[in-house]
């Protein structure tokens, strides 16, 4: 099984230790005859390139050494990866692909679609006005654009899709430029992804936007179970501004 991901691109994904995780997973699989069905499993890590146009090139040799693929994490590469997997008749198991893509006959989605989960949450609270803000990396920009398109297709007016990046260098205020542009647009729910959410939340607290007028929903937590029992978060303990801003954050995880 080839395990795909941009492991060297994103600071959070870089901590995932995919080689270790893959070894642990296949060791557990090989010990359990009810799961392995008499087969011997092995895994190889396939690194996606950081830039979207090159992200699918690592797949081109996968036909020779992988009978199935897990990934990709960049939804912009799902179409190309899915067509290759379909041509090779190999399963492609991805939790990051957004929306229905025609012709991907071997694509398997092991989790509820994140955009669908978000739509259910937003509809439950009757939150219709949505802005999507992403980190500047290709991965998160593609996730943000795909998410905005998917939510629009479901009838939600996503009127802003913007990638953070360059603002702190340009005006010294991080996400403040976007915040001030949207200040006064009451009822907006802002969906985040990536590490830049800390900067945006600190700026939101300074501008008084973390008082309940806005709700901030981290997107990345929808794709993994976030531990929450008796777990300390040092960044919140040592940052009173961020701790106050977190009153406006709604975290939806696989567990919940």
Automatic annotation (TrEMBL):
<keyword id="KW-1133">Transmembrane helix</keyword>
<dbReference type="InterPro" id="IPR028082">
    <property type="entry name" value="Peripla_BP_I"/>
</dbReference>
<dbReference type="GO" id="GO:0016020">
    <property type="term" value="C:membrane"/>
</dbReference>
<feature type="domain" description="Receptor ligand binding region">
    <location>
        <begin position="19"/>
        <end position="254"/>
    </location>
</feature>
<protein>
    <submittedName>
        <fullName>GUC2F cyclase</fullName>
    </submittedName>
</protein>
<dbReference type="InterPro" id="IPR001828">
    <property type="entry name" value="ANF_lig-bd_rcpt"/>
</dbReference>
<keyword id="KW-0472">Membrane</keyword>
<keyword id="KW-0812">Transmembrane</keyword>
<dbReference type="Pfam" id="PF01094">
    <property type="entry name" value="ANF_receptor"/>
</dbReference>
């Amino acid at each position: 099984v080839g395990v795909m991901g941009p492991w060297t691109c994103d600071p959070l994904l870089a901590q995932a230790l995919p080689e270790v995780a893959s070894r642990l997973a296949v060791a557990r699989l090989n010990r359990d005859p009810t799961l392995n069905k008499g087969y011997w499993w092995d895994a190889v890590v396939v690194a996606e390139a950081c830039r979207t146009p090159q992200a699918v090139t690592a797949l081109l040799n996968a036909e020779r050494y992988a009978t199935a693929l897990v990934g990709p994490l960049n939804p912009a590469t799902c179409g190309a990866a899915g067509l290759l997997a379909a041509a090779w008749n190999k399963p492609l198991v991805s939790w990051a692909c957004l929306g229905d893509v025609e012709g991907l006959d071997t694509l398997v989605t092991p989790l509820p679609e994140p955009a669908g989960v978000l739509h259910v949450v937003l509809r439950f609270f009757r939150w219709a006005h949505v802005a999507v803000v992403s980190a500047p990396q290709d991965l998160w920009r593609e996730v943000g654009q795909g998410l905005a398109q998917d939510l629009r297709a479901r009838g939600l007016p996503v009127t802003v899709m913007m990638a953070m990046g360059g603002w702190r260098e340009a005006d010294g205020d991080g996400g403040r430029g976007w915040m001030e542009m949207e200040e006064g647009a009451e009822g907006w729910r802002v969906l985040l992804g990536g590490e830049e959410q800390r900067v945006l939340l600190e700026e939101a607290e300074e501008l008084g936007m973390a008082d309940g007028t806005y709700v901030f929903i981290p997107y990345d937590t929808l794709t993994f179970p976030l531990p929450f029992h008796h777990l300390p978060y040092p960044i919140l303990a040592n940052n009173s501004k961020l701790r106050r801003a977190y009153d406006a954050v709604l975290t939806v995880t696989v567990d919940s």
